[in-house]
Amino acid sequence: FSRWHGALFIDAGNAWNKKSDLSDSRKGIGSELKLNMTFAYWVPLQLILGVAKGLDEAGEDQAYFNVQTGF
User: Fold this and answer.
1) How far apart are CA 71 and CA 52, in angstroms?
2) How far is CA 36 from CA 11, 44, 53, in A?
């Protein structure tokens, strides 16, 4: 294991088919815990565990896990 680190984020956005209206943006907050490691002595990996909370009326809470590598 090389390094542990974390992140807090605020997110806003939406997708539009016609004219964009910024007041229709969805908003959310979240946090992530990240672990940098080397797999099999030569493959750099980053493991990410996070939670996100939608702040709008129909917003959802989500947990996620992600494995990624550089390219």
Assistant:
1) 26
2) 24, 7, 25
pLDDT (tens digit per residue) in 38-70: 888 888 899 999 999 999 888 899 999 999 986
Written as one string, the DSSP assignment of 12-53 is: EE---SSS--GGG-EEEEEEEEEEEEEETTTEEEEEEEEEEE
Question: Pick from 29, 35, 34: which is nearest to 8 by CA?
Answer: 29
Q: Residues 6 or more apart from 62 whose CB is under 8 A from it?
A: 51, 52
- CA–CA distance, 69 with 71 (Å, rounded to integer): 7
Give 16's pLDDT tier (boundaries 50, 70, 90): confident
The helix (H) or strand (E) run that includes residue 5 is strand 3-13
